[in-house]
Amino acid sequence: MIRYQSVVLLCSDIAISKQFYQDLFQLEIELDIGGLVTFVGGISLWEKKDALYLLYPGSDTITNPEKPAQELYFETDEIVEFSTILQERKVPLLHEIQVTPWNQRTIRFFDPDRNLIEVGESMEHVVKNLGKDGLPPEKIAEKTWMPLEYIKMILQ
Questions:
Q1: Sheet containing 7-11: which strands, arranged edge to edge?
Q2: Less crowded by CB within 10 Å, the N or C end of the chain?
Q3: CA 13 to each of CA 40, 71, 83, 113: distance values in angstroms, whole numbers, following the listed order
Q4: Which residues, in sequence order, are bridge partners of residue 44?
Q5: SS3 for 112?
Q6: Which residues, 6+ apart, have CB-to-CB distance to 17 below 8 Å?
Q7: Pairing between β-strand 7-11 and β-strand 43-47 as defined by DSSP bridges
Q8: DSSP letter at 21?
Q9: DSSP assignment, residue 28?
Q10: Residue 61: closest CA among 53, 70, 69
Q11: pTM of model > 0.85
């Protein structure tokens, strides 16, 4: 049986990246063997210089594309407060808080190696807030693209 274990990000400076993920997301370290760090929850960091000879023999550099084709996704129900933390730490943004067509607020930014990260509100939070605004379940389902049964379950 094959089981998903983690995503591995290659890092130019493991110490800087480890601190970035610990400080910003309060991730707990599961394993730290110097050039490889695994956090509880399934994110691992691997020092590029240690990974290159195994992944790309003969190569001494890896460049990330300007527009990554993948992202790490996290959720918070305090998106405005989280955005303030990003601004205070001068984290480079792809975009400020935006509202998706399904009414979820998200923000996207880059880690020290230009890996793309998205942080969005949970859809449960979005549904509850729309309910607090007095919208009926049918209208919330329409605005969030979520099934009506899911909306009713969340609002109970």
A1: 7-11, 43-47, 36-39, 29-32
A2: N
A3: 20, 19, 24, 9
A4: 8, 38
A5: coil
A6: 9, 11, 45, 111, 112, 113
A7: parallel
A8: H
A9: P
A10: 53
A11: yes
Q: What Rg, from alpha-carbon coordinates, does the chain have? A: 19
| Amino acid at the residue 37 | V
Short-list 78, 79, 82, 71, CA closest to 111: 71
Token code pair at residue 22: 């610990």
Measure the CA–CA gap between 151 and 156, rounded to whole angstroms: 9
DSSP assignment of 125-138: HHHHHHHHTT--HH
Give the tokens for residue 41.
């929850």
Single-letter code of the amino acid located at 18: K
Cα separation, 52 vs 119, in Å, equals 29
